[in-house]
Amino acid sequence: MSIRRLPEKLVNRIAAGEVVERPAAALKELVENAIDAGATRISVRIAEGGILRLEVEDDGCGMTAADIALALERHATSKLPDDAIEDVTTLGFRGEALPSIASVARLTLESRVAGGDGWRRIVDNGAVVAEGPAALGKGTRVLVEDLFARVPARRKFLRSGRSEYAACLDVVRRLAMARPDVGFTVEHDGRRVLDVQGGQDRLARVAALTQRELAANSIGVDLDRGEVHLGGVISLPTYNRGIADHQYLFVNGRPVKDRLLVGALRGAYADLLARDRHPVVALFLDVPTSEVDVNVHPAKTEVRFRDPQLIRGMIVGGLRRALDEHGFRSIQRPAEVAAVAWQQEPVAPVPTLFAAHLPYPHAPATHLFGADGDTATLALLRDRVVDFSAPREAAPDTLPMGRAEAATAPVPHAAEHPLGIARGQIARTYIVAEAEDGLVIVDQHAAHERLVLEQLRRGMSGQRVPSQGLLLPEVVELDEPACDRVEAATAELAALGVEVERFGPAAVMVRATPAMLGAVDCQKLVTDIADDLAGYDAALGLNEKLELVAATMACHGSVRAGRTLNVAEMNALLRQMEITPHSGQCNHGRPTWVKLAMDDVEKLFGRK
């Protein structure tokens, strides 16, 4: 078969397959064009997920009639004044979007520059069908209708209108997050679904586009390393989600989905979250254009760094530093949510039968058995009425009993001891403490698990964890690959207080365990260590695997739920939490303590 030159119409359709994968891809290109035009307000209107109609209107610089005609030609752009494509600072630069979209849809392009006349050009699947004057303000309006209507092979692969709409909304969210100085509105099928004003600060914009509670449960990131700057907002480990749909990454203001950045994010939260939980983050990385290549993906959603290890180390280190500085904080839920969670006992009307025994004899009352009641039954019950006003004795084993240990220490100042002073224990699991500004409830198992982990981490950093030798070494049988993994990490495990040695091809001998763990099940401990060393085998280095090992060991050695603590033990746990990094969350990302403000307590009892 001989080689032939493809016709321009077919070339445009092939290009559209790379650039316009779905309605969201077309919308992304149009919104990026509006941002590059200097718009301060961008309005988006969508119908049927963008399949039927997409409209983007902005108040940017606009175009003349000649520029409109040129913009609809392939590889025509105003964003590359010279040939230095490596120095591009705009979101778009290839000049492919408009002609590609126009080749597979009906596109109407209207624009006007300041002080000029508006102009319109309509292109239907690659053919110009009309043009002429248009009435509009300064800026540009682009209307895309019936996307892929004449390309049934592409249209049948589109998802439902609801799925396409979700993808379109995600695109606008990411671009709006990158530019808090620009206002955005989105309407879907005539209903406004997003409206953010321009001129917001970064935290306010991120919270408005994700979840409002993020503002109270987030940490700011601000780090410089040479010419590279990392900024943004990350959630507390206790404020997390089951899927990674609220992780936004930007490089030089461009939304990207990069495996390196996602891996660095996972590394930063490695021992703070369970493996199936994900933080809410919006990270903004500013890199010199000479250190990053943005021209490696047709949709410009991936980038390539000249020094990827520097970027990864900066993200992991910057996030860890920010988390370390705020490690004591735990999730702060809205007060109204906390108040609703408390159940108020309904006040039932008092039956007539007991009216005589009430402190207020004339209080309104109702009959126990209806309006008139059964006279015989009432007489029978009246004989059995107990006079609650008279003192009486009861057998000690018939009354509810509680611990009578006094906890009379005064409440300390919040600045010195924010967790307050222990007042009691509930269900042998939760410590109740009184703080200067509210009521604190602590999960004793989760809290002690974090304290043990931090002690083990100090052992990994060079401060060897004290171990206690076993009177009789215990042999643990494992399969041979698991024994190999444990044997290879013998020196590192010794720093954590676990002394093991190989004992034949399919067993290891445990000679010592960390003293802080007390009596442990060596079989289960070593098995879990072997499993952690096998996890993420290709993706993590030994130190990162040992972080997982330390978390597993901490779970084995922590104070279990169901153990009764005395007041001194409870206060010792609170004081240790106040000086331990990351004590606001356990090793799985759950909060170790919550606080109910005194105002909320008073609201529960109707005092406010």
From TrEMBL:
Signal peptide positions on this chain: none
Domain MutL C-terminal dimerisation: 422-565
Organism domain of life: Bacteria
Coiled coil: none
Residue span, DNA mismatch repair protein S5 domain: 206-324
GO cellular component, one term: mismatch repair complex
Annotated PROSITE patterns: DNA_MISMATCH_REPAIR_1
Keywords carried by this UniProt record: DNA damage, DNA repair
Gene Ontology terms: biological process: mismatch repair
Family annotation (Gene3D superfamilies): 3.30.230.10, Histidine kinase-like ATPase, C-terminal domain, MutL, C-terminal domain, dimerisation subdomain, MutL, C-terminal domain, regulatory subdomain
UniProt-recorded Gene Ontology molecular function terms: ATP binding; ATP hydrolysis activity; ATP-dependent DNA damage sensor activity; mismatched DNA binding
Membership in a protein family: Belongs to the DNA mismatch repair MutL/HexB family.
Function (record text): This protein is involved in the repair of mismatches in DNA. It is required for dam-dependent methyl-directed DNA mismatch repair. May act as a 'molecular matchmaker', a protein that promotes the formation of a stable complex between two or more DNA-binding proteins in an ATP-dependent manner without itself being part of a final effector complex.
Alphabetical list of NCBIfam families matching this protein: mutl (TIGR00585), PRK00095.2-4 (NF000953)
Protein name: DNA mismatch repair protein MutL
Annotated source species: Sphingopyxis macrogoltabida (Sphingomonas macrogoltabidus)
Lineage, uppermost ranks: Bacteria, Pseudomonadati, Pseudomonadota, Alphaproteobacteria, Sphingomonadales
Gene: mutL
